[in-house]
Amino acid sequence: MLRPSDNVSVYLYTVPVDMRKSINGLSLLVEQEMDLPPMSEALFVFCNRARDKIKLLCWERNGFIVWYKRLEKQRFKWPEWQEGEPLTLTVSELNRLLDGFDLWNNKPHERLFFHSVG
């Protein structure tokens, strides 16, 4: 399975995408809708309306790569649709998303800050 290195930027496009789009259509979404350079060292993540298909687009040295995953029964946990700014994920969060975890409803423990121990 594809597991990118930890130093890659990951951008999530939250609006549903027609999965018939391939490299040209997805790279135009990155450039025009996300306002990001599609040939940067980043992964761009897209999902369809039914949330059972995901495509990842990335540029590698001299050409684009498209990675496609289709679920047979489940659905990807996806944030509410937002026009405008893409969501930024860590590579760890992307891997959890691809594994089926809900990143937006399963919150970690609240972070605590103390001034002293006593």
How is this structure best described in words?
The protein is of the alpha+beta class. Helices cover 16% and strands 25% of the residues. The chain is built from two helices and five strands, in the order βαββββα. It has helices at 23-33, 91-98, and strands at 9-12, 42-47, 53-60, 63-70, 87-89. A five-stranded mixed beta sheet has the order 4-3-2-1-5. Strand 3 and strand 4 form a beta hairpin. The chain is globular, with a radius of gyration of 16 Å. It starts with 8 loop residues before the first strand and ends in a 20-residue tail after the last helix.
Brief rundown of the structure:
This protein is of the alpha+beta class. Helices cover 16% and strands 25% of the residues.
